[in-house]
């Protein structure tokens, strides 16, 4: 099945005809564009040109707000396709992409796509000026180790810009953990799905609270903040985006 056919099917699955709407607005990735709302939920909003979701749009606008010299940045994105990847590929000096496959060693390839585990990246120290990721870290068993890996592969003064699902409260709720390789559920398991991707859901190890900023500083980042993109995204309240910078 080709990618656009699966995308169309996913779109039809999301469509609630009474909530359908169109709006002209700029997209951080493609410029002037037309947006579609398939349903009132945040997951129902898409750019019709690049198919960016509300999460990707928030990340894209935060990236444009925060990184003024993208053309001088060596970038790393923890996925291998989609509008953010396409934008970074044409805008950054270089781009490393990857996906996580549980059964492929870090640095190995599957169907031409590099495999990386953010808890043990195969990239050399100080490889990147920018690392981006959307909705990844809630699925990482040892996120402290993974945040430390981001610090390691960033250059001094380098920045990571990312999204995770966050609740309103202060404290992160650990839902599950790995102990000696065995999965333990502290709370009933929650699985996240991406409606534009095929496949089963992936376990959420935690629901982040605002203490994610302290976790980032504990891992070695000098600054960590939540930013709300300055540009409006049609119909949605913009998602908070995390920005964390390695000491210069
Ligand atoms: Zn777009």
Automatic annotation (TrEMBL):
<dbReference type="Pfam" id="PF08241">
    <property type="entry name" value="Methyltransf_11"/>
</dbReference>
<protein>
    <recommendedName>
        <fullName>Methyltransferase type 11 domain-containing protein</fullName>
    </recommendedName>
</protein>
<dbReference type="InterPro" id="IPR029063">
    <property type="entry name" value="SAM-dependent_MTases_sf"/>
</dbReference>
<feature type="domain" description="Methyltransferase type 11">
    <location>
        <begin position="113"/>
        <end position="162"/>
    </location>
</feature>
<dbReference type="InterPro" id="IPR013216">
    <property type="entry name" value="Methyltransf_11"/>
</dbReference>
